Amino acid sequence: MAEPGQARIGEIVETESARFVAESFELHRPPALGQLVYAPGDGSTCLYAVVCYGTTASPDPGRRAVRRSTDEVFDQAVYDEHPQLELMLRTEFTARLVGYVDATRVYHYLPPQPPALHYSVYACEADQVARFTERLTYLRSLLDLPEIAPEQLLAAHIREVYRLRGQDRDWLSRAAREVAGLLKSDYERLMTVLYGIEP
Fold first, then answer.
1. Radius of gyration of the chain (CA)
2. Would you give the end-to-end CA distance of the chain in angstroms?
3. Structure pTM?
4. What per-residue confidence (pLDDT) applies to 26?
5. Residue 12 in contact with residue 2, Cβ under 8 Å?
6. DSSP state at residue 137
7. Cα separation values, 198 from 36, 141, 144, Å
8. Can you tell me the distance from the alpha carbon of 168 to that of 40, in angstroms, rounded to the nearest whole number?
9. Angle at 37 between CA 34 and CA 43, to 5 degrees
10. Which of 104, 85, 115, 86 is nearest to 17 (CA)?
11. What does the pLDDT profile of the chain (199 residues) look like in tens digits?
């Protein structure tokens, strides 16, 4: 469950067994690609997911955003001149479920149930990230995503975890070996990840 003082970063607006979509509380600010987040599950269970996609668009699928800028008014000034835009747009992010944690164990496979609709999403703190990422078997689940190139997501996730683990080089070496095992038959994909996680 959420620890006291942990900030909510989004609310789940679509949920299924392997992933969920959440609306971010900040326009244009989804959590970072590859970031580890969690949502409450049943009882004291936390469901962990990796952010794999973000988008900002109109909530009306038939209504596309149109240009608002001029030579004099652009970037932030567009929002200053048109404050209604904050209400006409929304930022969402998709997160791939990679495991769950209860009071005693970390599980690196899909939870029995997806998170509930309209529940909160939280960013994982460094200690939560360290506990969940001690074993690396969940990385395999990031290699079959339709939303984004899996190699880019895997590299982004490893970089983010490396940062939150205090630049733990031993962990980074273990992660590189795990990726090498997963992609041993695909040299190009493997090198994309390895180049992407160079410190």
1. 18
2. 33
3. 0.91
4. 93
5. no
6. G
7. 20, 22, 23
8. 28
9. 155
10. 115
11. 555 557 899 999 999 999 999 999 999 999 999 999 999 998 889 999 999 999 998 887 777 788 888 888 889 888 888 888 888 889 999 999 999 999 889 999 999 999 999 999 999 999 999 999 999 999 999 998 887 899 999 999 999 999 999 999 999 999 999 999 999 999 999 999 999 998 7
| 3-class DSSP assignment, residue 2 | coil
Residue of 105, 174, 108 whose CA lies nearest to 141: 108
Per DSSP, the residues of 56-124 read: EE-SSTT--------SSS-THHHHHH-TTHHHH-EEEEEEEEEEEE-SS-EE-S--SSPPPTT-EEEEP
3-state SS class at 189: helix
Spatial CB neighbours of 112, under 8 Å, sequence gap ≥ 6: none
Q: For residue 5, what pLDDT is reported?
A: 58
Q: Cβ–Cβ contacts within 10 Å for residue 169, how many? A: 10
CA distances to 90, 100, 189, 198 from 128, rounded to whole Å, are: 28, 11, 29, 24
d(CA 122, CA 7): 6
Length of the chain: 199
CB atoms within 10 A of CB 59: 12
Amino acid identity at 9: I
Tokens of 116: 């509930």
Q: What is the pLDDT of residue 144?
A: 85
Give me the pLDDT at residue 120, please: 97
